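Give me structure tokens for this 289-residue protein.
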Amino acid sequence: MWITKDFQDYEIIDSSNGMKLERWKDIYLLRPDPQVIWDNGNLLEKYANIHAVYYRSNKGGGHWENLKNTPSSWQVKYHDLTFCIKQMGFKHTGLFPEQAINWEYMMDKIKKSQRPIKVLNLFAYTGGASVACLKAGASVVHVDSSRGMIDWAKENVKASGLEDKPIRYLVDDVVKLVEREIRRGNTYDAIIMDPPSYGRGANGEIWDIEKDLDHLLTLCTQLLSKKPLFFIINSYTGGLTKEVIANLVKLRILPKYKANVEIEEIGLPITENNLILPCGITGRVEFYE
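Here you go.
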């Protein structure tokens, strides 16, 4: 398992009964997590410093209950990267800290390549990977179907002092965008994708990872440059195991390119008892230069 251990502005303090207590700089949030199936006591009773709790609704969705004065937005740092954190309607905060282990990987590969690297970031959300790649010196095309997420990504790029770096923001359906890029003859040295289980494109297009990921991966192989650097696939979908991701890579990428493939769970440490919280799967394809 790949574990992010040095995110000083973030930690999981404790976990119990489907909830995790997190510190985001100096703000403490209690949020649901389906992986936490153990009982480690009532976290609301154990900790007096909790700013806000997210409660799920039996009808779907849920709401935040602020127990203390919680800012509408605040910033956290990962080394020299800065991100804006907010309480979103569906328990999220706009950042997945476990992805820092991938940010480090991307930045290292881009810096060591010593050549211009063009990155395509699909399902790019609020731009954690985009910020990391820009910081390392790459140019980035950042694609998401939500205008709100694109605007948030711009905030993160600006917060990290990278607004003058080469990045294009596209509000678009990922599959349609990739198909257009193929027709235009555009290519990329690195592709990152972080697909949700389900989603809607910019014009209401339906995304279903189990039905659509294989097709998207096939399309993306047509966008790789003659000397690609890396291809990263993240999955938070419970039904997609490491072996499923490995099979897709073997079928769609390895017949066309010589590459090293690593696929692992990613996770975050829990401070209170040294447990590790699983946070999904990452597949890294590193091409031989």
